[in-house]
Structure formats: C-alpha cells, structure tokens
Predict the 3D structure of the following.
Amino acid sequence: MTTAHTGGCRCGAVRFEASAEPSHVSYCHCGDCRRASGAPVSAFVGFPADKMAIEGKALKTFENGPVIRSFCGTCGSPVSYVDARIGDHVYFMLGVMDTPACYKPTLHAYVSEQLPFVHMPDDLPRHPKTSVPRPDGTNP
C-alpha cells in the first residue's frame, strides 16, 4: 500500500494529498520559479495528477503560457505548478509538504539560469534546461 503524501499552505486553507509515490523531486534554478517563489532556488515534488486531490476554496491560479501555478488566496503561499508541455503531473513546492525532509531532491534543473552566488555543493546531476522529457521525447 502506498503512503499518502500530504501538505498545504501556511494558513491551512489549502490542503492536498497524493496517493502515489513521488515521480520527481528536484531543484529548479529558472527565473520563472525564482519570481513565483521569491527564493533564489526552488524545490519541487512531482506526483501523477490522477493520484492526487487538492481542496480549499482559497486556491487561486496564475497562468503563464503552458504553466499554471497555484497559490493560497488567503496567505499567499505558493502551492504547485502544472506544465502542459510535460504531461499529467502536479509539482508541489517542497516547502508545503507536511514532512519536507522526507523528499530529497535528486537533481538540479535549469542550471543555465542559476544565480552566480548560489552554491549547492552536492553531487546531484545538473541539467542546463529542464530535467523532465517532453511527451514528444525531447528534453530541451
């Protein structure tokens, strides 16, 4: 039986639960994630969309091209994003997971946009762009 993976925003107005194991845990250094989170680097936990449930009337979204980011309309916490170019997954901010220490990132994405003063001395793979192949097989 798969363990439920839960999380939510800072005020508790938005909660979610995934009933599958994470398909992806990574750092992202892209400028879009930086602006959306306000942090110099973001970390995400991805789950198949059909294995997760999200609830809360405070959930709001912002669409930017193929990316839809969600956040709590009450406390402003960034919650997740969905990217139409990379399939049916939902990527939650690692910090909104109830037990974030349980989700160790396995790679860095968009290191071509990494800020020069951010140093993360680990041996994880580093991808110049995305780390998730597109459904058409490309990995730009």
